[in-house]
Amino acid sequence: MSKTILDANAILRFILQDNLAQASSAEKILLSDEASIPLEVIAEVVFVLQKVYEIKRDLIAKRLKDLVRIREDLVFEKDVALYAADIYSSTSLDFVDCLLVGYFKIKKYSIFTFDKHLKKKIQSL
Predict the structure, then answer these.
(1) DSSP codes, 8-75
(2) How far apart are CA 97 and CA 107, in angstroms?
(3) N or C: lower Cβ tally within 10 Å for the chain?
(4) What CATH number is attached to the domain comprising 32?
């Protein structure tokens, strides 16, 4: 069976429950073995929840962790996503920078950046 990648709109409907028919359809796919969510989509979801819906960072992080834990193989780089959610809830870094911190900490990748805030966070680990 081939994988189905969910886009940000499908995930937002599931998280926000603002369109129950679409939320239900998204949930069925999320619970199936065929669904996958790349980190790029997670980053877009976080951005929309923060900027459009003005949801607080700690609640976004909680919803993200709940989403990631629906199924073991649902989200690409699950461990990086969970670590990034923790960093996101406790810092002012944007979510993409939190993902980079996750790649540094979890995957042991080096990060080349001119961003002073990102550098400071990486150096503190």
Answers:
(1) HHHHHHHHH-SSHHHHHHHHHHHHSTTEEB-HHHHHHHHHHHHHTS---HHHHHHHHHHHHTTSTTSB
(2) 15
(3) N
(4) 3.40.50
pLDDT tens-digit map of 101-116: 999 999 999 999 999 9
- The gap from C-alpha 102 to its chain's centroid, in whole angstroms, comes to 11
Give yes or no for a contact between 49 and 9, defined as CB atoms under 8 angstroms apart.
Answer: no
| Amino acid code (one letter) for 46 | V
12-66 pLDDT, tens per residue? 999 999 999 999 999 999 999 889 999 999 999 999 999 999 999 999 999 999 9
Domain span at 51: 4-123
3-class DSSP state for residue 80?
A: helix
